[in-house]
Specification:
The chain has 11 helices and 16 strands. It is of the alpha/beta class. The strands form 5 sheets. It has a 7-stranded parallel β-sheet with strand order 3-2-1-4-5-9-14, with helices on both faces. Helix 1 crosses helix 8 and helix 4 runs parallel beside helix 6. The radius of gyration is 20 Å and the shape is globular. The model has no long low-confidence stretch (mean pLDDT about 95). The structure holds uridine-diphosphate-N-acetylglucosamine. The site of uridine-diphosphate-N-acetylglucosamine has 25 residues, from strand 10, helix 7 and strand 11. This is NAD-dependent epimerase/dehydratase family protein.
Length: about 350
Amino acid sequence: MRVLVTGAAGFIGTHVASALAVAGHDVVGLDALVPQAHGTDAIAPAGVHIADVRDGALLDSLLGDVDAVCHQAAMVGNGVDAQDLPAYAAHNDLGTAELLAAMARRGIDRLVLASSMVAYGDGRYTCEYDGSVGPAPRAVDDLAAGSFDPRCEVCGGPVRWRPIDESAPIRPRTSYAASKVAQEHYSGAWCTLQSARCIALRYHNVYGPGMPADTPYSGVAAIFRSALERGEAPRVFEDGRQTRDFVHVQDVARANVAALEALESHGVGVTAYNVCSGTPFTIGEMASVLADAARGPEPVVTGEYRAFDVRHVVASPDRARTGLGFEARVRPDVGLVELASARLRTR
Ligand code: UD1
């Protein structure tokens, strides 16, 4: 297939473009080199067109003989403050809308969309009395007292985390999350209008070689890895027992290839899949694995907390296994050791 990969110069897009090429697809790359991710003097990899997905005229020329689009281009991170709202809306919401309109003009009806676990907002939990529940908002007094685990949203009692699957409610909490949900919804509208198919891949915490060194928009793996490179201890917030699923970027790339090749067998509309390792890790464990592998200072558990953080988000890999035949190959304990000495992108 001839595939347009947007965001082809980015951390994930670079790996996706190579995996598609290795799988025998003909890749056309596009990237706007947004300064938040690339700095101001970035050079695009060979063969990647430097352009914005909002440039409809350029899309019309690039999409001429394309069969499918793999849309990785986005402004990422959680957003620093409210001044970031227009940029998320412009790059992610409007960018996707322009891309979908251009695909419709060219009759292209297959899309793989990079979505995110942030669409769920929070993890899922089991309450002894209320079954599968979401968490109640964490009270500032609890957090200040060092009590970080959330309570049941129904009865206020204790809860245990459970893996989140794709049927969980969508509850975006940040500007980035709102824009990722919007991308899924615009894609749904496009599918209805065009009798088209879309697979939305909800990436969990992606890490691996080529990830950007820390910026105000970075996730925790890049922040810890960059601290260790400076000879500083990773600073672990809360009590370090908050849980995530760290998935290697090469597995994410493989999931994209699997999704592209599975689109044909999917019905009209959007189907969402978690992309995860299936092996949960606490932030404290992740910091220790990285620090040991880097022979750096031991992590420091600070007890700090951030209002927008969620406590546990742990993915169910089941639907991706049955629907895409995708299973991660890189175990986080192995991949994080590799990350300790991998090259990071310094913009
Ligand atoms: C991250 C990404 C989000 C992405 C999602 C899934 C960022 C900022 N967040 O969300 O965009 O969609 O993964 O791929 O890119 N922490 C520390 N020390 C630090 C920083 C963070 O202990 O210096 C802790 C936080 O308190 C939190 C956990 O690490 O509990 C994860 O934080 P972070 O990576 O920022 O956000 P996610 O919610 O996992």
